[in-house]
What does this fold into?
Amino acid sequence: MPRAILCVLDSFGIGGAPDAANFGDEGSNTLLHIAEACAAGRGDVPGVRSGLLSLPNMDAMGLGAAATLSSGGTTPPGLTDTPKGGRWGVGREVSIGKDTPSGHWEIAGVPVPFEWGYFPDTQPAFPKELTDTIIAEAGLPGILGNCHASGTAIIEEFGEESIRTGKPICYTSVDSVFQIAAHEEHFGLEKLYDLCKLVFKYTAPMKIGRVIARPFVGETAETFKRTGNRRDFAIDPPEPTLLDRAKEAGRQVFAIGKISDIYAGRGVTHKLKGASNMDHFDQTLGAMEMARDGDLIFTNFVDFDTEYGHRRDPGGYAAALEQFDARLPELIAKMREGDLLVLTADHGNDPTWRGTDHTREQVPILLFSPGMEAGSIGLRPVLSDIGETAARWLGLPPGPHGTSAL
It folds into this structure.
């Protein structure tokens, strides 16, 4: 029985979403604009990368062809539209959000059937009744922030005051999130997690998708650094996902990175976390050593989004893509006959776009199995086709949303 390795390159959109204008994102295209920045010399990172974007392994699997289809005929500089093996296509999201849970739930066979709750871009951003309740129940001296903000910038601004006063930093964004940053040692990691659980109790009925713990270390604004101990407290998916179905069938499900958090731990048999994309790549290779016939390995590579997309850093994003691409031969070498590798994304985050938030885009779908011939699966009308493709490959019964692309 074959295995499936599903890798989500978090935020790696390829433009072309027909409803992008509804989100203020018409014209956004993460891959194309990174490639164009590299071609123009704006993607050079001294000592790290320079010149055209180079992704030969994903391009051979059909990345350039998928990008060309998605953008209506424009092939990103440095890529081609002539794949050498595997099936390629474009995924279109139907869920209303352009965030992590919406994209991941839909990938796993469950389009989001409701509108998420959001906090307004005002100051304060959170309702006074909510913050008063949290402060009282958690015994806090108060909170800092209480606004829309970039996670790294707000830690630089309030980190020293947070250490000095014991007040956690609370902030949000255009996504359906309540984020809490606090120092791992001065505030305490477990205390931060407990605070997030308390907040989640009140935000879940508001349909706020996630409460995210954002621990950091360092002593000054110049030395603060977020750690790999992030934890997401998320609303449960409303229906069984691909993970639930695989676990119920007796399969092992390896959730790597923030995958377990996104699905509220449901359907997971092995939870693995690291501090970086390369940690998660190593853990994916390790899971392939442990996985038995019929198992599912599901990895999120979050750095593309958090480190480069939100920070509007096309050069850093390009370097991270090239680093990922260079390691793909290691993963392919570990595949057994019949294994399926799926590379895709959950939304866009164009690092050349205005603001700091996600962008509404279509995503690549690259399918590879040893001996699989090159071919197109076209434009898939719902991201659930990705999960249904993996389900069919694993011999699982079909779900109610989406159809297999193979």
